[in-house]
Amino acid sequence: MCFVVTKSFLLTCCLPIFLMGMRYYFSRKVILHYLDCALHTDMSDIEQYYMKPPGSCFWVAVLDGNVVGIVAARGNEEDNTVELRRMSVDSNYRGKGIAKALGRKVLEFAMLNNYSSVVLGTTAVKMAAHRLYESLGFKHVGVVEHYALPGMTRSLLERMFFQVRYHRYRLQLREE
Questions:
Q1: Could you read off the pLDDT of 126-157 as tens digits, one per residue?
Q2: Which residues form the N-acetyltransferase domain (predicted)?
């Protein structure tokens, strides 16, 4: 289409490179802003945000003296749910059952504290993450299209080159 309009091989060849470059730039920009936002909110004071409030906790997976994974739980007394948050495993240690063990720890915590369900939201694009949640018993309950991560400006260019789907999952532990 570009060649038909411009009659230029050079422009036709450069357009995909330009578009991929824009996608990379905006993806990197959004992800770095999101990480900066996380590092200046709950992850800046884990003790205050996850260890002190009742119904919340934070776990660290250590293997051979190295931190290889983390997960947090944040209780919500209003609807008697606990949210699984910040699950992350070092890419060098994925596929070894660490994430499943961390997920089970949150489920155990929820049962011990009499929560009726565990909820989570993820923007993960890798199907392995979704399979992990489903293997733990979570049910996919919805998708929010064009989700705005913290730190996103939602500018026209950002929306053109970086879109996020937010998947919600729920595991019912007991009926209320």
A1: 899 999 999 999 999 999 988 888 878 878 88
A2: 20-163
Give the residue carrying structure tokens 């992800």. 31
Token reading at 116: 């009726």
Does the global pTM surpass 0.90?
A: no
Number of neighbours of residue 140 by Cβ within 10 angstroms:
12
- Work out the end-to-end distance of the chain between its first and last CA atoms, rounded to an integer number of angstroms: 58
Residues 16 and 36: their CA atoms lie apart, in Å, by: 30
Residues with Cβ < 8 Å from 90, sequence gap 6 or more?
Answer: 66, 67, 68, 69
What does the alpha-carbon distance between residue 71 and residue 92 come to, in Å, rounded to a whole number?
Answer: 17
Q: Which two tokens stand for residue 136?
A: 């733990």
Provide the 10 A C-beta neighbour count for residue 56: 19
Tell me which DSSP letter residue 138 carries.
Answer: -
Question: Which domains are present in the chain?
Answer: 9-175 (3.40.630.30)
